[in-house]
Amino acid sequence: MTAESPTTRLNKRMADLGLCSRREADEWIARGWVKVNGQVAPMGLQVGPEARIEVDAKARGQQREQVTILVHKPVGYVSGQAEDGYEPAKVLVQPRTRWKGDLSPRRFAPSQLQSLVPAGRLDIDSTGLLVLTQDGRVARQLVAEDSDIEKEYLVRVAFGAAVENVQAAFPPAQLARLRHGLSLDGQPLKPARVDWQNPEQLRFVLTEGRKRQIRRMCEAVGLRVVGLKRVRIGRVTLGQLPLGQWRYLGPQERF
User: Is the torsion defined by CA of 45, 49, 50, 55 positive or negative?
Assistant: First the structure.
């Protein structure tokens, strides 16, 4: 290829096109389900931007069986692998904890727990909307470095001795710093929307997800987080989903 037409590994190209995750692409290629310019693609193939990629219907069928699950995570559960004696939120996904208000026609099957991973983290001491998915496209959409999907949080705070009417005690200039001007680990944060929801609670809307970001932002301006709850990811809201219960992402729902 010429310098004007750089090549990319096929699995990365497929992920960039939103066809699947890299891991899925490797599986499909290994099964002979991917053709490039009419030829069955070998593993590790490099492709140019003009390459014609075709995916076998079997791969599409497998993808349709993958589930994305929304959990209302309580305090005390970790998002991913079990750690320090704390259970992962995935253990909450059982038939008896499925929300009765779930309108999805899907039936629960134990196979849906295989390769079910969190698409983004939610701290052990935070509650709210957590996404678990088997679908690499969803995971990439939510956690890729170039993702700009909004995440909305309600955050109860205290300021020094002020635990009531914190809004009156907290300097407006510090609120402006929360919106834009803070750095974590030497890296500036993207602008955020931060407003008072009520005198003791702030509403944060972020487009990034650094580790313990909101707690560290609050600490930087002298606020203490009393409670933190994620209520929205993109266009999907926590809504009426009860604490400790779960539902399927609906067929018409999109982040």
Answer: positive
3-state secondary structure of 188: strand
- HSE-CB of 204 using CA atoms within 13 angstroms: 27
Q: What is the pTM of this model?
A: 0.81
- Give the separation between CA 213 and CA 56, rounded to whole angstroms: 41
The active-site residue out of 102, 123, 125, 148 is 123
Please choose, from the candidates 77, 18, 27, the residue with its C-alpha nearest in 3D space to the C-alpha of residue 56. 27
pLDDT tens, the chain, 255 aa long: 445 678 899 998 988 887 887 888 888 899 898 999 999 999 989 999 889 999 888 877 777 778 999 999 999 999 988 777 889 999 999 999 999 999 999 999 998 998 899 999 899 999 999 999 998 888 888 988 778 899 999 999 999 999 999 999 999 999 999 999 999 999 999 999 999 999 999 999 999 988 899 999 999 999 999 999 999 999 999 999 999 999 999 988 999
Pairing outcome for strands 223-233 and 236-237: antiparallel
Active site residue 26: no
**Residue 243 dihedral angles phi and psi, to the nearest 5°:** -55, 130
Instruction: Give buried/exposed letters for 170-197 (b at 16+ CB in 10 A, else e).
Output: beeeebeebeeeeeeeeeebeebebeee
